[in-house]
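Sample entry (308 residues):
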Amino acid sequence: MKEPFNAMNRIQQDIDVYEGNLPDLFSIAWKGYLFGLLEWQLTDSITYARCMSLLPNTNLDPILETLSSKASPKIGIKSIEINIIDEIRPRIQNHINTFDGNLSEDYIIAWNGYLAALYEWGVINGHSYDVLISMMPPISNPNPVLTIFSGRVYELDIRQVIEEDIKACEGNLPERHAIFYQAFLRGLWEYGAISPKSYKKLLCLLPTPLILEDLNIFPKRGQVPKSPGFGVSTQVCIELNSRIQENINAFHASLPDYYLIAWKAYLLSLAQWLVLDWEDYQQLLTLLPPLSSSDPVQRIAEIIKDCV
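Predicted structure, serialized as tokens:
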């Protein structure tokens, strides 16, 4: 029987980020995730109870009871995946019908947490995950399920990449590197892959002053976009296409290097986090001139692709 990958550590890290006051929606997302592990026999009842004991009680807890199937589902061979979709789809639809088509966000978060567990542990594949997620509206930013889905892997791996780069540069990180990391982290923060606290901590590793706020690339403060959820990238692609074109036109088609670096890092973060699907990511890259293969920033991008 599988043990949830660092589940207890990941829960504790979320609790620490919020200084012991984990928001209710984060708690219900974790409980949905853990319930998915238990129901599909990815963990045992003892481990489940230990993980659940870390989470505060909320007035949303009764939602979990409504996620359950009357018949206990069993994991079988991959060829029965269509039966798994047929098992789960009516349960989601039943909730949607109960709310006359307007499923409340707490239920959406619980279901997203549940499905994230099934996807992460191979009960369903990416296509099945997208089919089931598409039944529900996207979750507002910050999306607690996105944090749960990756644990804190992004934060820890990126910290390691930055620290190793700083060490290799003998403490004098070049401005081009700093711009790349700033833009990459900004994309992760905007779409909920890392918390605001983690975002600030990682930025503190970089030399100051930070210049990205002066670039006309990102949404202004107070206008951070809503997270569209996994596999839903069309509207984001349209918005980014417009913003890139505005930058290119502003510089009469000769985009400065620091804009080019920032855009490439920002787009990579959204592709890594599945906000953009790979096709849309590649389409947006065609708007930008390529970096030299010998450019150190290009090397950083390849390291991040491998590590994150």
